[in-house]
Amino acid sequence: MDCEIPEGAVLAGIPKRVGRGWPVAAVLRRFKVGAVIDSLIPHHDAREISTGTCVEAMIASILLTGRHTLSGVASRLAEYDCRSLLGHELDPEVFNDDRLGRTLEALFKAGLSGLNTATLLHAMDVFGVEIDLIHFDTTSLKLFGDYPGGESDAENPDAAPVVERGFSKDKRPELKQVIYSMSATYGDGLPVLARVTDGGRSDSLENATHMRQLAEVFPEDHRPTLVADCKLFSGRNLVLARELGIPIVTLLPRNVGLWSELVDPVREELADAPLLRERVAQIVEQDERTGAERILEEEGLAEWRGLGTETVYEWTDDDNVEHRIPLKALVIWSADKATRNARSLRSRIDSEERRLSRSIKKLEREAFHCEKDAVQALAAFHRIAKPRFHYYESSIEAEQRPKARGRGRPKKGEVRELETVWRVEVYLEECEELIEVNAIEQCCFVIVTTGDLRPSEALAVYKSQQTVENQIRWAKVTGCVAPIFLKTPSRIAALGYVYLLAMLVRGIIQRDVRRGLAENQRTIAGNPGQGRTQRPTAEVIFRHFDNGLQTIPLRLPDGQLRNLLVNHTTEQALIMELLGAGPPESSGLSGTPREPRGSERGARKGRPLGMVRRKRVVCETRGSGQKFTSAQNRRH
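The structure corresponding to this sequence follows.
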């Protein structure tokens, strides 16, 4: 044991794990999300624990073990020191699946959208969450079992989802599912709003519902800019965003006529367009004590160039009312995509040639007894050919051939009767012009916005769409939100809200540690082999506490009880200080931190404290600013 035990002290109980629960408990104490929920859901006198405490227990279970299964929450929390984790001397057995199931029902009955709004506003006040730009995305969550169907009420944010089959982003179309939609802040990736909706719900409609929710939460003069993928772009959504006063940034789909009208005139100019963003690899020297870095070498890896223009998108609704929506469009050329496309271009050309040659050979082998049949067969070939890299010419020719005779030997001197048949001939060749056009188009994409962003800002904002994607990936992979084993759709909807809170707590831990390290010019150990860092992920932070950190309850000679903290390191103490947790004594713990050693994160292994380390860093830099050019009219 690496800590000093007071003389005369005796063991007063079973040692309990602390581990990752310590940073989680620090944020939960500041957040007080249980108190917020309890203020909206009155506590029943017959219940030993409140709904808010049960929600905090589920958040802790998700973050500590990556599991939400209600029947296992009690056994998972039994390993931990619940007093330091939840602030209560509770028997973990009170968090049984029956009580947690009733908790989910109570959350649903209280109105999930109202609870989401209340906790969001509380988080903005406590943690200073800035919501000027938000990213939106959806995913599918698969389910097993038999769920009764029902009438869809997806426009109502408080409605229970309909469990049904739909487009599966898990590539499991045979399973029923629900859709989980979520938005997160720009930069820090803190969850803002989330809900579970019908399994067959389209992303385009869910974008519209989310905009209405934003309009209800935020005042008209402070509505955030919404960033989403190409499913956001539709005439209906553009008109709704304008009516609600919500600026948007999205990717223009290639199947929209406006895409070609914007790209075709500038296709040849894009490679020499102004530089908007660049990805570089840097060899840097880093002082491991302060985190100060000095760039030694720099190498360009990728670049994005673009031209901005103003345009007007015209859309006619179902009532034949025409709408003119002003847009700022940014046509972007990616050198990185150009390099990757060049490597695969030849194989795609050869693959198309083999496909077309098989169809042509089959078509030319067939003889048609009337010209109409030949025309129809050639039309069918036109429909399926759709060449991207080849040009072909086709013709229909009539020819005479001996008519097929019956069985038996021909008579002496018999002259066979001739018949007319029609054959299709197709001449195929590569088209250099199409290949060049395709190579350029594959390197291009178009971003449109209705906000006041400059082109380089619009590109940077859209490329940060990964912030919400990373949160969803964590929920599905590490957080194991799916598959879901709950009995009713209402409980599934409430579980989506609990996961939102868990992701918010996790995001606050990551944001506060990163900010504190940068402000204090400090670093902590990163992943093995990557040195120290000022920008650790939440998982890197949590792994600093996976060294057997635990509490040992002791009874002192004077009869007092003390929880002794074992395996407490200076790296952990720094993280807890940055999270505003204060010394261990403030949590009812005692113990002096020591330097990490052995296989623990941050162990120096004989290296000097102020060692200067060289490492390779890949980062992206913003290019020169550029303005959007004058407006053009587009009709669709």
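The radius of gyration is 32 Å.
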